[in-house]
What we know:
It is a single chain. The protein is mainly alpha-helical. It is built from 14 helices and no strands. It folds into 2 domains: 1-90, no CATH class; 93-292, no CATH class. It is globular and about 60 Å long.
Amino acid sequence: MIRRLLSGRPADILNICFLSFLTVLTLVFRQRVEGPVLLFGLYLGLIGTQAALIALKDRGKALRFVYDLVFPTVSILVIFDSLGRIVHAINPRDIDPLLIRIDYLLFGCHPTVAIEKMMYPPLTDLLQLAYSSYYFLPIILGAVLIFRRDPAFDRALFFIMLCFYLSYIGYLLMPALGPRFTMNHLQARDLEGWIAAGPIQELLNRLEGVKRDAFPSGHTGIALTVLYLAFRFDRRLFRWFLPLVAALIVATVYCRYHYVVDVIAGVMLALITLALGEWVYGYREQRNDSHR
Length: 292
């Protein structure tokens, strides 16, 4: 079973390795983490489900779809939600003051406060919708590649999961709340839209809660990674995604979720993901060729 796993899909290996890392982390900091038993059960349950899907994935189209798209999506979301119990327990010092200082040094002002002068309710609605597209871009790309039965799906899945998990490591090492919490007292006006912005903000606040997930900007990193993959594997999708991703990146600061330095780090996150992902796949393909 172990040999079969290690020779299998890189995304599966990555998922199990990251879940194992979180399990060990929870064990080491069990005295400080909230609900360590729950986290142990959660992570081990995900590992067990991954192993079962690897064994059963070829026993029907439904199982294959769950293995390819549903379980990776659930795993990413569940792991992200669990970080709320871990990040501040093992690393209680937020780096927001440092990020605020860097932004001020770069621009001579606080960007989220300065942008307030440009605030216009229809624009706020538009950018809040663009920001929310982050949750759908990877799924749309994956669904298109699955529908086409494109072998590039496995590579795309690995790149996207790698970017997510690298961003999660960033949250563990450099926890930050983001300007919507730390700089709210400096804002003269609430972020207001006409129709969409308010309900979307409320929904996201309910779903995500208060997490130290500002640095690096996962929205930026994931969106750029998906954009790169769309450029490589589906140019028509790339043309649809390009303006959406551009608006999404602007929205990260306009909607007060991120400092500009978070966005810069998100760009670096995407570049690291692409370089590391291509290296992993290049090594894997070279290794497979040598065993033929």
